[in-house]
User: Fold this.
Amino acid sequence: MKTFRVTRGGDVVARLDPAEAGIVGLLLDQLEQLLAADTDDVAGDPVMARLLPDGHRGDPELAADYRELTESSLRSGKTDDLAIVRATLPDGGGEIRLDRDQAGAWLRSSNDLRLALGTRLDITEDTEPPDDVADEQDQQLAVYYWLTALQGSLVDALAGARGARS
Assistant:
């Protein structure tokens, strides 16, 4: 991956190799399927609990009311962001060129992808990147840490652009 940077014109650009673009595409597919699933089908799913957290932890009735009011719009917003990422993801790798709104969608979606993967892998602050990718668990951990670097690169680029405008 060639990290994100801001061009003179204000676009945010990076480059993904074919394997990286394929991984992002696969993760987008999985998250889209999860968000499109019927609420009853994903009830109790820890990933959905992270992506759509309770609005109030101390009062289950208030939390249920909050979920009823917000879940549809939260899912819709996340789905819209995923569509933007998919539309700007180069097929087979290549340059990503984003305007500010698209960069925001990438930032939110990369966060959702990391939350989903990190929850499935039970990532904690003590979890370390694998030294050697020996099995599927290590591969998934490597993807998680690669997503972390991708997101960090985007955050740094956007922060640098913001600082340059000040």
Remarks:
- DSSP finds five helices and three strands in the chain.
